[in-house]
Structure formats: structure tokens, C-alpha cells
Write a structure and sequence with these properties.
This protein has one helix at 106-115, and strands at 2-5, 8-12, 22-31, 46-50, 53-57, 65-66, 72-77, 80-85, 94-97. By secondary structure, it is mainly beta. It has a 5-stranded antiparallel β-sheet with strand order 4-5-3-8-7, with no helix packed on it. A 4-stranded mixed β-sheet has the order 1-2-9-6, with no helix packed on it. A hairpin with a 2-residue loop joins strand 4 and strand 5 (53-57).
Length: 117
């Protein structure tokens, strides 16, 4: 479920999740580096998937907020991003991920695209 918070939009648990339970499987649109401009909006939403691949994660995947104490983790499984509970999560609790644990930091991404890497 999506709600607004002081961070903007966020994803909130619509039910109780047990540790390790899959919360969501999101399809990915793979995007070539050349399609992502350092000054464009897409740079805020693209995930660095490793091995020179970037992607836009569909579903609620693009709306998870950052926390230094995440309750959710994510990883690439085939052509989907799978989000899982790191611990038991109560209904109504915001689902948050650690951006540093996956996609490159925004400043690093901007620098990389500016160089044309």
C-alpha cells in the first residue's frame, strides 16, 4: 500500500510479514546507460543491477524509501527484483530498504554517466 510521509511517497505493509517472506516481485525494464542523463529524472529511479546493467523496477519497487535500519532487502532474481522482509514486519509499518546495499549512490551515478562509463 502506498502512502505519503515526511519522506514523500512510501510503501507500507498491507499485512504482517514474517522474516524472510517475499513481499513483492517486481518486473524490471532494462535501460542502457546511454538512455540515462545525469540531469534527467530517470537517474533518481534507476537501479544499478551490476555487470553494466541498469533497470527501472516496476510495481512498488521504485517507491521504497531509504533507511540506515532497513526492514526489507532486495535482490535480482532472473528478470525481477524480489523484496523480502529482513525481520518480522507489522501491518501498516513502512517498508524501507538500504539504498547503499544495492543501487549506486546518486552522486556516484551522476559522475559515472557524466564520464560516459
Amino acid at each position: 500500500m502506498i502512502r505519503r510521509s515526511r519522506k514523500g511517497r512510501g510503501v507500507y505493509a498491507d499485512k504482517h510479514y514474517a522474516k524472510g517472506e517475499v513481499i513483492e516481485r517486481c518486473p524490471i525494464i532494462f535501460v542502457p546507460y546511454r538512455e540515462i542523463r545525469p540531469d534527467g529524472i530517470l537517474i533518481y529511479y534507476v537501479f544499478d543491477l551490476g555487470e553494466g546493467r541498469h533497470g527501472v523496477v516496476l510495481g512498488h519497487g521504485m517507491l521504497y524509501n531509504h533507511s540506515d535500519e532497513p526492514n526489507t532487502t532486495y535482490g535480482l532474481v532472473r528478470k525481477s527484483m524480489v523484496f523480502r522482509a529482513l525481520r518480522a514486519i507489522k501491518r501498516g509499518e513502512e517498508l524501507v530498504i538500504d539504498y547503499d546495499n544495492g543501487p549506486m549512490l546518486l552522486d556516484a551515478r551522476r559522475a559515472r554517466y557524466a564520464r560516459g562509463d
